[in-house]
Specification:
Elements: E1 12-13, H1 15-22, H2 26-34, E2 53-54, H3 55-73
Length: about 70
């Protein structure tokens, strides 16, 4: 995944924004993290601090899942 040095503020999305960007539900983003498919770019510390995800990481997860789906269909 992306290193902290490669992060751009415009690419950081909270859970809701990440879900909208990926076209999935916010619970799906949490499930991707739980399954090890996605790693947060920055974890929110403390109550109410958002966990942030990197756009390129979301793109990579979607690519991996699409490849898996195509392999199953073949």
């Amino acid at each position: 995944m992306t290193s902290l040095h490669d992060l751009y503020p415009r690419d950081l999305l909270d859970n809701k924004q990440a879900a909208e960007y990926a076209g999935v539900a916010p619970s799906t983003i949490r499930q991707w993290v739980h399954r090890g498919l996605l790693e947060p770019a920055m974890r929110g510390e403390g109550r109410g601090a958002p966990t942030l995800y990197n756009r390129p990481d979301l793109d990579e997860v979607k690519r991996i899942l699409a490849e898996r789906e195509a392999a199953r269909a073949a």
